[in-house]
Amino acid sequence: MTGYDPVLLDGVRKALEEEKTTVVARFAALSAQDPFADPDRLTDNAASDADAFEESNHDRVSAQTDELKAQVMAIDDALVRIGNGTYGFCVNCGNMIDTDRLAILPTATQCLDCEHKKKK
Ligand SMILES: [Zn+2]
């Protein structure tokens, strides 16, 4: 196995780090919107339909923050794999992942073949 060009990997690492900064900022902004994170809520005597609204708002926000958390984990994972030299190799079959695929999805851990097999 030959591995990837270190210059290319360095570019990927920088792009991932920038992406992570963006995702973390969005995560912080979203968390601030979560009504359950509002310290005033504890003393809030709002009517129950307002609570129901806050409940659904919380669910919506937490679904988005879960998604962002998963993105950060995928980025961290990719950064670790760049560091230890396993980046760009399919975790399933060990083949090199197509660079076109990595350009679109830099956090990809499997080659297209395995990804397709997984979905069946
Ligand atoms: Zn594979």
Short description:
It contains four helices and no strands. By secondary structure, the protein is mainly alpha-helical.
How would you portray this structure in words?
The protein has 120 residues and is mainly α. It has a domain at 6-87. 66% of the residues lie in helices and 0% in strands. It has four helices and no strands. α1 runs antiparallel to α2. It is elongated and about 60 Å long. The protein starts with 5 loop residues before the first helix and ends with a helix. The structure holds zinc ion (ZN). The site of zinc ion has 8 residues, from α4.
Which features does this protein show?
120 residues, binds zinc ion
* Arithmetic mean pLDDT: 88
What compounds sit in this structure?
Answer: zinc ion
Please summarize the sheet with the most strands. none
Give me the secondary-structure category.
mainly alpha
Proportion in helices? 55-70%
Topology:
Elements: H1 6-33, H2 48-84, H3 99-104, H4 112-119
The structure holds zinc ion.
